[in-house]
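Problem: given the chain below (290 residues), write out its structure.
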Amino acid sequence: MLAQPVKSGLMTFLEQLSAAAARNQSLLCVGLDPEPSKFPGALKGHADKIYDFCAAIVDATADTVIAFKPQIAYFAAHRAEDQLERLMQHMRRTAPQVPIILDAKRGDIGSTAQQYAIEAFERYGADAVTLSPFMGFDSVQPYLAYHGKGAFLLCRTSNPGGDDLQNQRLASVPGTPLLYEHIASLAQGPWNLNGQLGLVVGATYPAEIERVRALAPTLPLLIPGVGAQGGDAVATVRAGCRRQADGSQSPIIVSSSRAILYASSNDDFAAAARREALKTRAVLQQAQTD
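Solution.
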């Protein structure tokens, strides 16, 4: 049976984030990017053990995180969508206080976008999803029909090729902003119909994180790239954290995947993942208070 869209009266994604941040004292998101070839011990090479591996990571880190972020391609590549469904159900049962961001980076229009929204929010029951906004607002709008669900738009990504488009100026827009700046302004303003939009900005570009935060002062920022990708956790937090007029903190979600998932190549992988998550959480929290 498919999960139902969030109904009015239940917590929105932003409320879930705020509650998880307070409960777990965390800005850390654990990315669930399972690669069977990297699995530890007896699990190594076994794609049919993706659920077991990820569930063990979830159980070990659930009280250390602000969110979990399963990457759908890592499941689909191994025909493991059924394992992803089981994992989503497991997280709902064992860590209902932690919101789940489905990292899908969908980007299409019309009835196809509607189907992708059904996939994210009804089939998998995610609380939020990542999207590519480059086909325009009508590629985002179907997701906003789900009350309280979040949607993170790719804005300034950490890959070198991001400069090819994101760092180009738009002569037709007043002020000739860079494309990523224009996306940030649209998400903060006219596109944010349900009040639940966020932006994806890479941890390897702290200066651009700071610029995005200036343009989108209230939006949640999903920041991948800390850990194995080399992003500076302290610089990331300092660039993304801002106090709003009411005294609340502008939300940031700092994602780490491989550094936590593969902290050990032995059967103690879950305990090692927990130690790495606790260490990363502490660094992020200290940066927030400095």
